[in-house]
């Protein structure tokens, strides 16, 4: 289980995280899901959480529109990304409690020091770290 992320899309995710700080940002990863999963497009979303400094949420109607756009473009939903502007690279307890897409990738961008990206597959009851292949 590996996530392939082209460098230009990695930069786009990091730029989104930086521009949204100090709030968390969120988006959807589209491409080909499997092993490895490959990200071919990044779709930014608006963070609709009540406390966007420490949580992320995509408003349901906006999420449905994004999912329809991804499907219409012929892609799979590979997963989601969000940022931790001041937090660790690892998923939080809240991230695990709110994860809803088993076997999809959850990418986190930490801005706590130098920007870093990590990815985890949600297994339905826990996150499992997965390598990110940039290229």
UniProtKB/TrEMBL annotation:
GO terms for biological process: proteolysis. It comes from the Archaea. InterPro entries: JAB_dom_prok (IPR028090), JAMM/MPN+_dom (IPR000555), Metalloprotease_DSAMP (IPR053551), MPN (IPR037518), VirAsm_ModProt (IPR051929). Gene3D superfamilies: Cytidine Deaminase, domain 2. Keywords: Hydrolase, Metal-binding, Metalloprotease, Protease, Zinc. GO terms for molecular function: metalloexopeptidase activity; zinc ion binding. Residues 3-126 form the MPN domain. CDD domains: MPN_like (cd08070). This is M67 family metallopeptidase. The lineage of its organism: Archaea, Methanobacteriati, Methanobacteriota, Stenosarchaea group, Halobacteria.
């Amino acid at each position: 289980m590996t996530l392939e992320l082209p460098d230009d899309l990695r930069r786009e995710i990091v730029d989104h995280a930086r521009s949204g700080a100090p709030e968390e940002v969120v988006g959807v990863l589209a491409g080909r899901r499997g092993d490895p999963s490959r990200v071919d497009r990044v779709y930014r979303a608006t963070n609709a959480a009540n406390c966007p400094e420490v949580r992320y949420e995509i408003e349901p109607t906006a999420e449905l529109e994004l999912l329809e756009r991804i499907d219409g473009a012929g892609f799979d939903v590979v997963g989601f990304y969000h940022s931790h502007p001041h937090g660790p690279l690892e998923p939080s307890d809240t991230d695990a409690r709110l994860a809803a897409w088993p076997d999809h990738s959850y990418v986190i961008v930490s801005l706590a020091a130098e920007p870093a990206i990590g990815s985890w597959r949600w297994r339905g009851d826990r996150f499992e770290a997965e390598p990110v292949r940039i290229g």
